[in-house]
Design brief:
By secondary structure, this protein is mainly α. It has one domain: Glycerol uptake facilitator protein. The protein has helices spanning 3-26, 37-59, 65-73, 82-103, 105-110, 114-121, 130-148, 171-184, 194-206, 222-242; strands at 154-156, 161-163. It has a two-stranded antiparallel ribbon. Helix 1 packs parallel to helix 4 (82-103) and helix 3 packs antiparallel against helix 4 (82-103). The N and C termini lie far apart (35 Å).
Length: 243
């Protein structure tokens, strides 16, 4: 398992489960149909947890270009490794979104509202206002990256030995993403991850989905640049406070 493969598989599983919970809630005649925002935010939080569990031992489980950029900008990760991580994240997101379409194809076929179909793949603003939408994505990602930069290891004081928590160590990031979704997700759908939005958006454009909606490319830059800006701002503040 290389860091590239770990990021690809971890991101693919995260997107499979994250976009999968959206499909389960919004597509017609699923067992979870119309079960609501709490189910979506909880499903996404658990999806992140599982992706991190898979990738963390091998890559540190960024699973998000904004996290990779934020860590690099704070000197917590080498810039030279960032491109391969980001490539793996985008490829993984596209794979995960493709599997969701295969898994839920019967429900995609019978869902008449094409806006619900596209909601499985990519985010859209509740009220379209590009400056405020950008700010929403930037703030959500700022909270994500700034908090991640303050994650610490468990230590035993008498031996100074680092004690790992195993897979339980991924729980804090799940709670973090859950909190962001519940508190800050209502304006734009909280992409807070360029690969999570743009990768599945590209797949949506390519797949032969019945009664497919337009891809809304005019908005696509917001969930890409907003998270990147928020991540860089988080890294800047973290480095200033740590100086």
């Amino acid at each position: 398992m290389t860091p590239f493969i770990a990021e690809l598989i971890g991101t693919a599983i995260m997107i499979l489960l994250g976009t999968g919970v959206v499909a389960n809630v919004v597509l017609k005649d699923t067992q979870g149909y119309n079960s609501g925002w709490i189910v979506i935010t909880t499903g996404w939080a658990l999806a992140v947890y599982i992706g991190v569990v898979i990738a963390a031992p091998y890559s540190g489980a960024h699973l998000n270009p904004a996290v990779t950029i934020g860590l690099a900008a704070s000197d917590s990760f080498p810039w030279s490794d960032a491109p391969i991580y980001i490539l793996a994240q985008f490829l993984g997101a596209m794979i995960g979104a493709s599997v969701v379409w295969v898994f839920y194809k019967n429900h995609f076929d019978i869902t008449q509202d094409n806006s619900l179909k596209k909601a499985v793949f990519f985010t859209s603003p509740a009220i379209r206002n590009y400056p405020t939408n950008f700010i929403s994505e930037a703030i959500g990602t700022f909270v994500l990256v700034f908090t991640i930069l303050y994650f610490t290891e468990v230590r035993v004081e008498d031996t100074s030995q680092v004690v790992g928590m195993g897979s339980l160590g991924a729980i804090p990031v799940a709670f973090l993403v859950w909190s962001i979704g519940l508190s800050l997700g209502g304006t734009t759908g909280y992409a807070i991850n360029p690969a999570r939005d743009l990768g599945p958006r590209i797949i949506h454009a390519l797949l032969p989905i019945k009664n497919k909606a337009k891809n809304d490319w005019a908005y696509a830059w917001v969930p890409v640049l907003g998270p990147v800006f928020g991540a860089i701002l988080a890294a800047f503040l973290f480095t200033q406070l740590s100086a």
